[in-house]
Design brief:
InterPro entries: AB_hydrolase_fold, Mycobacterial_A85_antigen. Keywords: Signal. This is Esterase. It comes from Hyphococcus lacteus. Strands 1, 2, 4, 5, 7, 8, 9, 10, 11 and 13 form a 10-stranded mixed sheet that branches. The chain is α/β, with parallel strands linked by helices. The protein contains 13 helices and 27 strands. It has 3 domains: 168 residues, no CATH class; 281 residues, Alpha/Beta hydrolase fold, catalytic domain (Rossmann fold), CATH 3.40.50.1820; 95 residues, no CATH class. The radius of gyration is 24 Å and the shape is globular. The protein is 24% helix and 23% strand.
């Protein structure tokens, strides 16, 4: 059976699951929408989770790792209270592809209905997508999603039967953060994005203001945009010492016990630096630009996500500067971030060269699509495998600093397909597709490669190259934009980045080193450093990742000294 047949069988229309004949001869699951469900009908994705681990809820054990919880997914359209979706064999899963591959045993089971809304786009097309509702497109927590109570069940794929699951809980609303002495919140309705999506769309900023901000109404401040994933509030800043009684939380990523204590100490140390006399007075903003495809927009204009680049640069940033007394000129604005935020920092600087005075891009997502992690989108035929005359091998998607592989390209993409079809998983490969691809005839993004086979669509790849391959765009347009970018490009990555992001940096550096006029920036590498090394040679990632806001400040001050125009305000914001 092909994957396309699996997807067809794994859909639900009017509450009746279209399952293969194999479902009748093996145990299956029935996920029911109770009569008490608050809405008249639901569109969305039902995600069923199985795990032998009862220490925490199954929904918090879902990931793309090969040893993560088992998940299955089906799309529902117009599911009404009292109706149900059946999940049996031939419904696509991850890590196991099929329910009949799940070993017999005792499992904790939980289901979630990730709710979709209908959007009538400005291009005349209609799509169903999960609206951004305050949780940063985290389907586990988005308000209004329906969830079942976890319970223990016995499952055997070799016997007939059905296990019932009821979506009897509703995720609560999430309160918006409140202003404090140091953190101010700005929310605007974007005219550009509201027109694109056919409904009201808001942008938010969480802005760290300097010491004695309200006592110095004469001062106007430089502005740094700290790009990255969805922020519920301004992170990494606390005005009180660490809580000595806080229960220790282990970090598997860094293999550190009590890592939450490290985070609290760093956040408090940042506060003490922020109010010190040596710290320049400035504004630092984290932006909530979550949208129906992902927890942020990549801060550029996109056929599928909308004109977020223009909306942020020409609507939100002027609103921040107006309300919080920003200087409001290109020489006084800066960009930095890591991973997604690293790509955004460089991408925004390249797309808007006059509006910003420097980008500090750490471990950026692929900035040269000849090394889209481990794939050359323009020359390779397949994203999942490297093929020889007699066999093929899986392309890796994640490694540690020793090169040990924990994920493959096929596995990560299948995991996303389980979470959502039509580029609706809310995960990494799908958001790149949503941002970079042209809009398809059905209103959803065109696939960069076939999700079943991994075969790359070269027409879509060429669209990606012309519009979002940052190295290609810089090289193509350097005669025009090069003089505007001199001294503004700074890129940092570990040479053992877990996602192979250093590969694209190597190729970009090759261009920058020979660019004419010279780029006059910086590219630097951390020896054996994993994701997300930011240029700090003195501290491990576990610490340096918590110091972006102070680590790049000296570099920002150098850029101001080098590039501020004659007569610029260099004094009002330097009060003690």
């Amino acid at each position: 059976m092909t994957l396309k047949q699996v997807l067809k069988l794994g859909s639900v229309i009017g509450g009746i699951a279209l399952l293969g004949s194999a479902a009748a001869s093996a145990e299956s699951f029935r996920v029911k929408l109770p009569n008490s469900a608050p809405e008249a009908a639901y569109d969305g994705r039902i995600i069923l989770i199985l795990t032998p681990d009862g220490e925490k809820e199954p929904r918090y054990q879902v990931s793309a790792n090969f040893d993560a919880a088992q998940v299955f997914g089906v799309t529902v359209d117009g599911l009404k209270p009292g109706q149900y979706a059946d999940i049996g064999t031939d419904v696509l899963g991850f890590p196991a592809k099929d329910l009949k591959e799940v070993p017999a045993g005792e499992y904790f089971v939980q289901a979630i209905l990730h709710k979709y809304d209908t959007f009538n786009l400005s291009n005349g097309k209609t799509v169903k997508l999960p609206a951004a509702r305050g949780a940063g497109q985290n389907w586990r927590l988005e308000p209004g999603n329906l969830v079942s109570e976890p319970r223990k069940v016995s499952f055997d794929p070799n016997k007939r039967g059905r296990i019932n699951v009821s979506l009897d809980q509703v995720n609560p609303e999430i309160d918006e953060p409140e202003n404090t002495e140091f953190i101010r919140h700005i929310k605007i309705r974007s005219e550009m994005l509201s027109e694109f999506w056919g409904t009201d769309v808001f942008l938010r900023a969480h802005v760290l203001v300097p010491k004695d901000f309200d006592e110095h109404p004469e001062a106007k401040f430089p502005l740094a945009i700290f790009h990255g994933h969805f922020p519920a509030d301004f992170g990494g800043f606390r005005t009180t010492p660490p809580d000595p009684d806080a229960e220790c939380v282990y970090s598997a990523r860094f293999d550190l016990d009590c890592y939450n204590h490290v985070e609290q100490q760093e956040a408090y140390d940042f506060y003490k630096q922020w109010i010190s006399e040596d710290m320049p007075r400035m504004l630092i903003a984290e932006i909530d630009h979550s949208n129906p495809y992902y927890d942020d927009s990549y801060a550029v204009n996109s056929e599928n996500i909308g004109p977020y680049g223009d909306a942020i640069t020409y609507e939100l940033i002027p609103a921040i500067e107006k309300e919080l007394r920003g200087i409001g000129e290109g020489w006084s604005r800066f960009l930095y971030g890591g991973s997604t935020g690293g790509w955004e920092a460089l991408g925004v600087q390249v797309k808007y060269p006059d509006e910003y005075n420097g980008a500090f891009a750490a471990c950026p997502d692929p900035i040269d699509f000849r090394q889209f992690m481990t794939v050359n989108l323009y020359e390779d035929e397949n994203a999942y495998y490297r093929e020889g005359p007699f066999t093929k091998i899986d392309r890796p998607a994640h490694r540690n600093y020793l090169g040990h592989i924990s994920r493959t390209m096929e596995g990560e993409n299948r995991w996303e397909l389980v979470l959502g079809d039509k580029t609706r998983s809310g995960a990494q490969w799908d958001v790149w597709e949503a941002v970079f691809s042209p809009n398809g005839e059905d209103g959803y993004p065109k696939r960069i490669w076939d999700k079943e086979t991994g075969v790359i669509d070269k027409e879509v790849a060429e669209y990606w190259r012309q519009n979002f391959d940052l190295r290609y765009i810089m090289e193509r347009d350097w005669k025009e934009i090069g003089p505007k970018l001199q001294g503004k490009i700074h890129i940092y990555t570990g040479d053992m980045d877990n996602y192979y992001l250093n590969n694209a940096v190597y190729l970009t550096e090759d261009f920058l080193e020979k660019a004419n006029p010279p780029y006059q920036g910086e590219v630097d590498y951390g020896d054996r450093a994993e994701h997300c090394w930011n240029g700090d040679h003195q501290n491990p990632n576990a610490v340096s990742r918590l110091r972006y806001n102070t680590f790049y400040v000296p570099k920002i001050l150098k850029r101001i000294d080098a590039a501020a125009p004659k007569g610029a305000d260099l004094t009002s914001w330097k009060y003690k």
